[in-house]
Design brief:
Strand content: 5-15%
Shape: globular
Number of helices: 11
Number of strands: 7
Number of domains: 1
CATH topology: Rossmann fold
Strand order of the largest sheet: 3-2-1-4-5-6-7
Structural class: alpha/beta
Length: 274
């Protein structure tokens, strides 16, 4: 096992499957104690936790419904009672509703904002007292290419990016880094597969990336401090270009050849973050 996150306590919401699970496994492999926070006890474990433990890592599950502020507060309290600190929060949990702006069911509209926006806000607010008390921390929100598009889901992600920038500006003086991470393109997850029509999936199969670069970017971003990188919305390609070892970017670009174009990480020059 590597040790890039050794000694860190990392909370990941929605870590029972998909990108949250991939990142939970990656964080644990780097030495972090991972808290798998998911909506029900069945989703919270033993799947991800057992996988981490079988690989020699340290993890435990805490039930958390990010659509319920009281559940978030309770989850954070449980973590602090058990391990005494939270060094890293990844607000991964999200809900993708079917339909368009003109057709989305109003209950789905409400749930999508309650989970994707309010849930992120309340999770960040819940960990801030502990991070301030311990002198710093790292918060990673999850953005999407959808934030650049005119969809109801994209609206929630655009709100998350704005929230990220706001918290970063307010918390930099307290030593807390706050950044948003997004994949360059779609990554195969149960949620992504379930939310698309099979006919559409078939046409986009060649545009789906493996999770490797996203997990590596999540690890690298989780190592940042308020002095080295905060208040940014970055793709996995950009994070690896900025903070990866020599040769990492080209290796992951080859792995993602179908979706990482020549300009995948040229928006930022090395050292421009922070």
């Amino acid at each position: 096992m590597a040790e890039r996150l050794a000694g860190k306590v990392a909370v990941i919401t929605g870590a029972s499957r998909g990108l949250g699970q991939y990142c939970a496994l990656g964080y644990a492999a780097e030495g972090a104690t991972v808290i798998v926070a998911a909506r029900s006890s069945q989703e919270a474990g033993p799947g991800t936790v057992e996988m981490i433990r079988q690989a020699g890592g340290n993890a435990f599950a805490v039930s958390c419904d990010v659509g319920d502020p009281a559940s978030i507060t309770g989850m954070v309290g449980t973590v602090l009672d058990r391990v005494g600190r939270i060094d890293l929060l990844m607000t991964n949990a999200a809900y993708f509703a079917p339909g368009t702006l003109s057709t989305i069911d109003m209950a789905d509209w409400d749930r999508q904002f309650r989970v994707n926006v309010d849930g992120v806000f309340h999770a960040i607010r819940a960990v801030l007292p502990a991070m301030n008390a311990q002198g710093g921390g790292n918060i990673i929100t999850v953005s999407s290419v959808a934030a650049q598009k005119a969809s109801h889901y994209g609206l929630t992600k655009r709100a998350v990016v704005g929230m990220t920038l706001g918290f970063a500006a307010e918390q930099r003086q307290n030593g807390i880094a706050v950044n948003a991470l997004r994949p360059v393109a779609a990554i195969r997850t149960p949620g992504w597969l379930a939310s698309r029509d099979p006919a559409v999936l078939k046409t986009r199969e060649h545009r789906v990336s493996p999770p490797d670069s996203y997990v590596e970017a999540a690890i690298l971003l989780g190592m940042r401090t308020a002095d080295t990188c905060t208040g940014r919305e970055l793709s996995d390609a950009e994070v690896i270009r900025l903070f990866g070892k020599p040769g990492d970017y080209e290796r992951f670009k080859t792995m993602n050849a179908q979706v990482w174009g020549d300009d995948a990480a040229t928006r930022l020059a090395p050292g421009a973050c922070g």
